[in-house]
Amino acid sequence: MIRSRDAGIGIALVLLLATAGCIGFLTGSEPLGFAANETEVDDATLDETDYRLADSGSPNSTHNVTVAGQTRQVVVSSELRRYNRTVTLAEGIEGDFARVTVFTSPAATVGGTSVNPIGSLSDERLVRRFVGTSSGLSNVEFRSNRSVEFLGESRTVSEYAATRSMGGVQTNATVHLATVEHDGDFVTVVAVHPEAVDERSRVDALLAGLRHPPA
């Protein structure tokens, strides 16, 4: 197995894989692995915004790629970070209703074929992928775009209106989405919070505080 962001099937690659001990990939008996670097919000920004790390992990997914008529398996290792903030909706109603997910996955290719579907998904499909019906969200509708400076340049952040079910009660929610390619990885950020809570400035601060990879 070899971890690389761009692998082309040819004589040079065959020699490289062979010397790296990846004959298994060439023969189809072993998958080729790609791993993303972590993306995290720095501690100073978390203190400033009152968000905290709630969950982290390194989920794997397996994909089949076909190159030169041969189908081989590729394992993609991603990095996931979830941050929460406790907010008050009304008297006696308080909880971690403001949530931000940072998902980093390798922008890898094999023989010119992408092994990561993130780069080809529309914003609407990304919203449904990361905070779909399983998160109690429905009726997701585009609202507007804005520009935010993060990961070294000005980037587009899309905002959506949605309906969210919490404890059997339907409430209006706001979704913020940004997905960019940075240093060989796709970095996708999805923030969800009740519409009644103004989180835009905090979400923009969290984006500005992203570090990929962490210092």
TrEMBL record:
InterPro entries: DUF6517 (IPR045396). It holds the Pfam family DUF6517. It comes from the Archaea. This is Uncharacterized protein.
